[in-house]
């Protein structure tokens, strides 16, 4: 399990949303896209969106421990999907500084948030420790862990978790990059 001081993790958890707005501003200001960079970045981001969508459709937050679907490969498929979406946008933006900024935000904000979430899940679900022992925190297994709960994808969960917002945000980001590349 990851380990960060609780006070630090609590503080950065509150900064997650404001930091997102700062990232959007930096992205808008410093991106230098071309049509070719967008062609390279698009499939990476779409793969991330698909992973996020699959994950959200298998996740009944705080009700059932998600151990099936993408959660049989990694405990945090939503965050891996976010990383892929961001990587595709950075490729499209053609700015390594933005890549470094996104990486720093992930390390200093999202990893501590993952720690908090794991503490919460271990208190909420009795079987979390056994699940965590079989499934890696981030880097996926090549084969799924054997689980008792299959957590099939359900559109109702996808909608309840409002995952369509990630697609809308991605679409707006790509349209902005396309506009910037063509002007």
What is the overall number of helices? Answer: 7
Rg from Cα: 17 Å
Contiguous low-pLDDT stretches (5 residues minimum) are none
Largest sheet: none
* Proportion of beta-strand residues: under 5%
Distance between the termini: 47 Å
Q: What's the total count of β strands?
A: 0
Average of per-residue pLDDT values: 91
Q: Which structural class best describes the helix and strand composition?
A: mainly alpha
Shape annotation = globular
Estimate nothing, just give the exact number of structural domains. 1
* Helix and strand sequence: HHHHHHH
The helix content, as a percent range, equals: 55-70%
What does this structure look like?
Helix 3 packs antiparallel against helix 4 (96-124). This protein is mostly helical and 183 residues long. The mean pLDDT is 91. The chain contains 7 helices and no strands. It has helices at 6-30, 35-56, 77-93, 96-124, 128-134, 155-160, 164-182. The relative contact order is 0.20. The longest helix is centred in the middle third of the chain and has 29 residues, at 96-124. It has one domain (6-182).
Which features does this protein show?
single chain, 183 residues, 68% helix
Give a quick summary of the entry.
The chain has 183 residues and is mainly α. Helices cover 68% and strands 0% of the residues.
Indicate the topology.
Elements: H1 6-30, H2 35-56, H3 77-93, H4 96-124, H5 128-134, H6 155-160, H7 164-182
Helix pairs in contact: 1-4, 2-3, 2-7, 3-4, 3-7
């Amino acid at each position: 399990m990851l380990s960060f001081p609780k006070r630090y993790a609590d503080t950065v958890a509150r900064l997650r949303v404001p930091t997102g707005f700062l990232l959007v501003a930096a992205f808008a200001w410093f991106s230098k896209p071309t049509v070719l960079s967008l062609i390279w970045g698009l499939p990476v981001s779409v793969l991330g969106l698909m992973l996020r969508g699959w994950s959200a459709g298998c996740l009944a937050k705080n009700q059932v421990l998600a151990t099936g679907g993408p959660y049989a490969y990694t405990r945090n498929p939503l965050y891996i999907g976010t990383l892929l979406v961001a990587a595709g946008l950075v490729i499209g933006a053609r700015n390594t500084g933005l890549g470094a900024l996104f990486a720093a935000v992930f390390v200093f904000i999202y990893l501590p948030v993952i720690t908090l979430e794991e503490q919460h899940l271990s208190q909420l679900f009795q079987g979390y420790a056994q699940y965590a022992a079989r499934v890696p925190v981030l880097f996926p297994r090549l084969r799924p862990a054997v689980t008792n709960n299959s957590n099939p994808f359900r559109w109702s969960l996808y909608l309840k978790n409002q995952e369509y917002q990630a697609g809308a945000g991605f679409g707006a980001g790509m349209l902005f990059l396309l506009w910037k590349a063509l002007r």
